[in-house]
Amino acid sequence: MATVLLLRHGRTTANATGVLAGRTAGVALDRVGRDQADRAADRIAPIPLAALVTSPLERCRQTARAVLARQQGDPEVRVERAITEADYGQWQGRKLADLAEEPLWRTVQANPSAVVFPGGESMQTMQSRAVAAIRRIDAEVEAAHGPSAVWVAVSHGDIVKSVLADALGMHLDLFQRIAVGPASVSVVRYGEHRPEVVATNTDSGDLSWLAAAPAPSGDAAVGGGAGHDEPGTARP
């Protein structure tokens, strides 16, 4: 089964000032965010990527460009609207501190499956479109490049959290339990029987073992296995 690296964009000017950017045009990485994107790109660099897929928003494109600049090969690059930021509607562009005073804020925290942003989309719709896109592209990458293929999806915090919740078999109402920091890398494999969540919210550490590990069988090891040193997932 192919492996997808879910990469959140680096910190933006909106993140730094506590503003919900949403789909606002022109929201770019700040200096910290550019450094974060570069570090994530360095971590991914040893892995020959089969594909690099990004949200159309500028902050994700910037992060994707950092990853692409460090690749030795020539991965397929595409923009995927289905993994763009949630449509926060009338919440977009407002201060998070002000939004926290809205009655809907508590629902976002405790019961996100019931949330429809005023003038925007529901959180269920957000998750459905993102999960469908990630699973579809993953199947396409594996069909084209084989089960050892690794690809990157550059997206947004709530999008990555919702995809991870689906992979973990969690109800959307529990997805706020998942942390996804700026420029963090989470690793998922979609197997024949179930998704396998290999890592979440990592912002440091070696990822080069993903480049050399043979494709796993998709079966879970009884007893938990021996980690990356077991047959089929050995480190180089």
Automatic annotation (TrEMBL):
Region annotation (Disordered) maps to 216-236
Q: Which Pfam families match?
A: His_Phos_1
Domain of life of the organism encoding this protein: Bacteria
Q: SUPFAM superfamilies annotated for this entry?
A: Phosphoglycerate mutase-like
Region forming the signal peptide: none
InterPro entries in the cross-refs: His_Pase_superF_clade-1 (IPR013078), His_PPase_superfam (IPR029033), PGM_Phosphatase (IPR050275), Phosphomutase_MSMEG4193_put (IPR022492)
Task: Please name the SMART domains in this protein's record.
Answer: PGAM
Q: What is this protein called?
A: MSMEG_4193 family putative phosphomutase
Q: Which organism is it from?
A: Curtobacterium citri
